[in-house]
Design goal:
The structure is a single chain. With 97 residues, the protein is α+β, with helices and mostly antiparallel strands. The protein folds into two domains: 50 residues, no CATH class; 36 residues, no CATH class. Helices cover 14% and strands 34% of the residues. The protein has one helix and eight strands, in the order E-E-E-E-E-E-E-E-H. The strands form three sheets. Strands 1-2-6 form a three-stranded mixed beta sheet, with no helix packed on it. Strands 3-4-5 form a three-stranded antiparallel beta sheet, with no helix packed on it. Strands 7-8 form a two-stranded antiparallel ribbon. Strand 1 and strand 2 form a beta hairpin. The radius of gyration is 21 Å and the shape is elongated. The N and C termini lie far apart (48 Å).
């Protein structure tokens, strides 16, 4: 990741050098390694944001674990209703008292 203006922008995993050249234009950030363009990103407004371009990370990114109660939870290839799961947890908590 490269920090520009308080925001983080991704570079490909294959980037070998720790020092890269960054050009910040009105609407895009360009990142160069040894004079070769390796990434282009839109400029992010504000600070403390990050932009990861598709293909810049080999490991899959995990999705946001915070879910609405109406969503289902995937558990060992079986879909379980979140409300049912929460009720079962509440009941087990009562039994433990």
């Amino acid at each position: 990741m490269v920090s520009v203006g308080g925001n983080l922008y991704s570079v490909p995993d294959a980037t070998r050098k720790r020092i890269v050249e960054v050009h910040t234009l009105a609407k895009k950030v360009q990142i160069f390694e040894d004079g070769t363009l390796i990434a282009t990103h839109p400029v992010l407004d504000g600070r403390r944001q990050r932009w990861i371009a598709p293909g810049h990370r080999k490991m899959p990114r995990f999705t946001d674990r915070r879910r609405d109660e109406r969503d289902a939870v995937l558990d060992h290839d079986k879909v379980v209703d979140t409300e049912l799961l929460l009720d079962a947890l509440a009941d087990s908590h009562k039994v433990g008292r």
